[in-house]
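## Example pair
The file below holds two records. Each record gives the amino-acid sequence first, followed by its structure token line.
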Amino acid sequence: KIPKSLLGIGKEHWLKWTEFAEMGGHGHGHHEPYTIPDYKIFKVADVPELVAVEKALAAQGLKDPWLRNEVWRYNVKEWGTEKARGRLIFFRGFKYGFAAFLVTIAGTALYDKIYPSDHGHGSHDHSSDH
């Protein structure tokens, strides 16, 4: 059944869209489709930091209806701490990058040893030509 919101796009486009969605959106066809978690599993009451924000807002007569969207950030078991996520972002490829750096330095040193160069410090006579 085609949803009413998509009735204007034409059946052939709808079929292509459903095939795309069933394949996980990547066109490969070998991944499980992504399932969006139910919003009810994210509860502000489970996060003391967000409860404090909610109370501070309530004291001023305000309410943040989107506060629930921040709950995932405080699930340390699944996402780690903010510090751990930061380390992951900045140091994810560090060991491979550092290894490549060492190989480059060693390769440059070996090349310079095999093919020595005077680096422009040869025996040029600069005494009377100028």
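Second record, same layout:
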Amino acid sequence: MITAELLDFYFASRFESPEQRVRFVRQSTVVLRDLNVFVMLRCLGSPHGYVTRYSSAWLLRGCPSVDWPKWAQKELAYDREEQRQCADRIASALNHGQQAVFDEIVNAVESRPDDAHFFIQGPGGTGKTFLYRGLCAHYRSQGHIFLCVASSGIAALLLPGGRTAHSRFKIPLDSLTGESICPISKASPEAELFRHTRLIIWDEVPMQHKYCFEAVDRTLRDICDVDSIFGGIPTVFGGDFAQIMPVVRHGRRQDLVRANLQTSPLWSHISVRYLTENMRVRNAGPENRRFIQWLHDRHPNKQSPINQY
């Protein structure tokens, strides 16, 4: 029996977006239903629609629901016009540094997605979350699946549709090692979601142990059948390495350093970009500016003079 799943599997690589794929399944389901009924009737030797004794569920076996697949319903439920307006508002408010990083990420995702992996380094107040929101609205306005995760629950709440990385990727907790993988089956709805993901944002990564990223990397390579970092899915990480370090039980200073993402083999595949203009203190008074200067003097990354704050 010809089914929509068979055609969907055969033509899967030809769809540019999940919306096109689901639209194809919807249209082909109706056509294949009539075709399958016609073929079944001819095989039964009935020229006049003798189908009352047969279950319609049996005749239509294998034809999927015309609704959105469950794995895509939430991530594709965003109003595209609303997202477009949000993207336009954010784009008009980006400073020069944010705009440069935004353009570079978008161009990389479009032209070389397998290599589009970035880390956005910036102290608090430099607009990392604002940049994430702009990227999110940009891609969701086009009907793409865009996943936002963070290393902490508070940070995840600041991202549109955000979840913790442990929740989204099912990262092991107590059993995490340098060889761990995430317990996600290749046939699961979660795996299907990842295979259609356009971009992943992962915020506050400096506080996460490098084993978390390596476990997700192994899992996505397996799910996507792509031997490229994170299964070829473009990723944007963010945070400030001058803030919270990973937690290592009974760890010494060198253990904390070794647990850092910067010591992982993945780091060499990630392009680092810097945000330096502190948007929170644009109109700060002299006392606040002295405090910002004090923080700046102690920050390991001095990419810009204090007058940019």
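Notes on the second record: Strands lie at 117-121, 145-150, 163-164, 197-203, 235-239, 271-274. Residues 44-66, 304-309 have pLDDT under 50 and may be disordered.
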